[in-house]
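Before a computer can learn anything about folding, someone has to put a protein's shape into writing. The three-dimensional part falls to structure tokens, numbers that each stand for a local backbone shape. The protein below has been through that process, and both of its lines are reproduced in full.
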Amino acid sequence: MATAFPAFSIDTLVTEQGDRINISEQDDEFAPYFLSITNGGKTTKVDEYSHEGARPTIDSMKIVSLEKSNNLIVLVYWNVANPELRGTVYKTYVYTLENGILSINKKITNDRNLEGFEGIYNEGEGGNGQYQLKELPQVEEYLLSTYSQSSKKPSKLSMCNEDTEEVFSCTLENNKKVSLCGIGSSFIYRYGVPNNIELEYPNEGEKPLDWRLIQGPSLTQEVFFNRGKYNYTLSYSIDVVDLLTAEFLDTYALDVEHNGKSIFSRTCKAVSKPFPPHFGASFQ
């Protein structure tokens, strides 16, 4: 819809073609900011940034070339304080800019690495969250390395194909591969070798993969699922080797139980893509 939106602009960017891109305030307590583009004397609203436990803060925006087209990246964050989260939630939005039309780039915006939390969970009892892509240079570097002129293909160790996002991949001690592949907001577990997938989960009608955090002598994340009487667990553990030198040992492993008895246990001898930051939030 092309119309005029009386608002106060907080950030403006003018393209080489003369298009004017604005992020402006609006009188809406649930979505206090909106993104618009103006060309030919017409202004079109593109997106809104909503209240998500706190008022959004617009950090910055920039146009970069991704996958052979110009894209606008917008960094937004929320400073939240509640019993579940106390810290900052970060989110990067990506929009394709073509022929004066600005539209959401769902593929890149839905990249789970472009959203994260830094702070404490459950008043500190749930641990601390750390996030790397908090500033424009870090985000731009990640986007250019992942979505350059041609789409980045999964690694040679991956069981994912080009229609899915490689979330995690490793080679086990038995030389079989394990991958978690993202498709939309869901995950697929695959085991085998690239030309022979021996096990894929979930199939149609099966429950989605689940995640849990276990705190003890080591901090362990587990992605797990059940199929019949078999229980599968892909785990990532962090153990302290030397607290003074901040030396830690990361271990990825796959364990399988049948009727509660362990029948398979292998660690990863090579990891091509580790668990992404703030991984557990993807399962909530």
Summary: Helices lie at 106-109, 136-146. Residues 136-146 form the longest helix (11 residues).
